[in-house]
Amino acid sequence: MIAAVIPCYRVRDHILAVLAGIPASIQSIYCVDDACPQASGNIIEAECIDPRVRVIRHTTNQGVGGAVMTGYAAALADGAEIVVKIDGDGQMPLELLDNLLQPILTGRADYTKGNRFYFLRDLEGMPPSRLFGNAVLGFMTKLSSGYWSVFDPTNGFTAIHRAALSRLRLNTIKRRYFFESDMLHHLYLERAVVVDVPIPARYGTAGSSLSPLGSILPFLRGNLRNFLRRLVYTYYVRDLNIASLEFILALLLIGSGVAWEITQLWESVETGIAATAGEAVIGALPIIMGFQMLLAAIHYDTQNMPERPLQDLDRTLTGR
User: Fold this and answer.
1) 2-221 falls under which CATH superfamily?
2) Global pTM value
3) What is residue 160's three-state secondary structure?
4) Helix, strand, or coil here: 91?
5) Residue 153 vs residue 54, higher pLDDT
6) What phi and psi, each to the nearest 5 degrees, are found at residue 102?
């Protein structure tokens, strides 16, 4: 069964059209009214006659991530094999839903997501601030998640296979706008295969309450935390390899070099005698070597993305 989850918050003017456009290949639709002030759930129940649609209500607003997690849990409980996440604002190209599902249906991926930046022609007319903001957010998410080949992390047009979804601890995933980036982080820890699917950039009358440029600083803390967590879990808990050593050496070399340079600078200020060229080189050499080690470790990390889909692993383990 293929199910769809639609978080509903201030989508009164668009939700019925979105529901009408969902193709017959979707067997179940979970509309999560996230304490919507426009009573989106009531509107759906009163005006939508599609038997596939089920309304789930939150008594308090949990954010878009919280609404999606509630829908995921309901779809899993009902036995869904694949769950698609669709926004209720009408900005997602439902005509490309088959493209989103194909990598999962053919067993090549566990999770697929839209990428509005794949084709250059789709970037025409996009504000420079949005381009820059998404570029920075994209790089931060690559670093924190480990999925170096995916981009457009805030894109919410996604699909996930049960094999990956059932492994996630949904209560640990962030509830607000950071949840898409946090999802990628948790999927990497489970070694799920993620594939980008090109989609056109579409901005309807609903607009977007998420500013990529304004989200850089708020997202920085979460991405830094996820990067450190992924680093420890991937290279010092799950496995030990050459990158494990390179990260440690880079930290020691850069740290000792910086400490030496600070010490020499302090002594120069205290004594009024400038440090010699040789003393400066003593500190610069480990810093340079440390950066070389860091680059080597990052290069290893870019090649260490999951390759075997979890659904394939499950078939092997169960013999089905």
Assistant:
1) Spore Coat Polysaccharide Biosynthesis Protein SpsA; Chain A (3.90.550.10)
2) 0.89
3) strand
4) coil
5) 54
6) -55, -50
